[in-house]
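Anyone able to model this chain together with zinc ion?
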Amino acid sequence: MLPTFIPPTSAGLLPCADRSELFDHPNTQPEAAALCARCPVATACDTWAVQHAEWGTWAGRTDDDRGTPREELPDLPRLPVVATPSCGTEEARRRHIGRQEQCDLCDRAYADRVRAGRLAALDAQHRRPGGPTARGYWLHTVLRVPSCAPCRAAHAADVRYYRTQALAA
Ligand code: SF4
Ligand SMILES: [Zn+2]
Ligand SMILES: [Zn+2]
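re: yes, here you go
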């Protein structure tokens, strides 16, 4: 929603245009306030919100900040405060992706998790009852771990197989 004193023709120019979801809940007040901080009509907007006992964030202030009388407020459930996941976790990495943020710590932690997964997979290859498959050799390569004889043998067998197929075709 936009302040009603703004003519509809100018409404699209305001930083809050099309962002109403940020202005409805107290939890997203910081993001809403960041938009209001560069709004040319913020002072008028604040006065308007006080006069109209508006709820939600206007001009960066919530209804609590303005002291809007409780009976004027709709029965809106307050969202539980969601803790920001700490950097280094998969949750934090996904949150960064969603916000198009770059975070070296999360990137490094992710690379470490991928590497740990591949090391475990290589270990499983070495424990296979029938010996490793060509995937073992591939894992050595991507992990930059010098290949072992059984993995090299599996790779060579694979290459031989595909060569014979190609010759037969
Ligand atoms: S101050 Fe904030 S809520 Fe008010 S018009 Fe500007 S951007 Fe929208
Ligand atoms: Zn991070
Ligand atoms: Zn190996």
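The chain has two domains: 8-71, 109-168.
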